[in-house]
Amino acid sequence: CAMASGGDDSAFSDATLTAREKHKEILTRMEQKWRAREIAVPTNDKLVMLRLRELGEPVMLFGEDPGERRDRLRDVLARIGSDQGMPTSMKPEKKEERATEEGDLFYTDGPEGLRKVRQWLAYHTLKHAQKRVLESQRLHENEPAQEQRDKEAAALWDGVKRWTNISSQVGDERSLSGCALSPDASIVATSSWTGTTKLWSMTTFEPLISLTGSQDRVLGLAFHPLSCISQESASLNLATCGADNVIRLWSLENSNPIGSLQGHTDRVNRVAFHPCGKLLASTRLLFCNIRNALHV
Question: Lower CB count within 10 Å: N or C terminus of the chain?
Answer without folding.
Answer: N
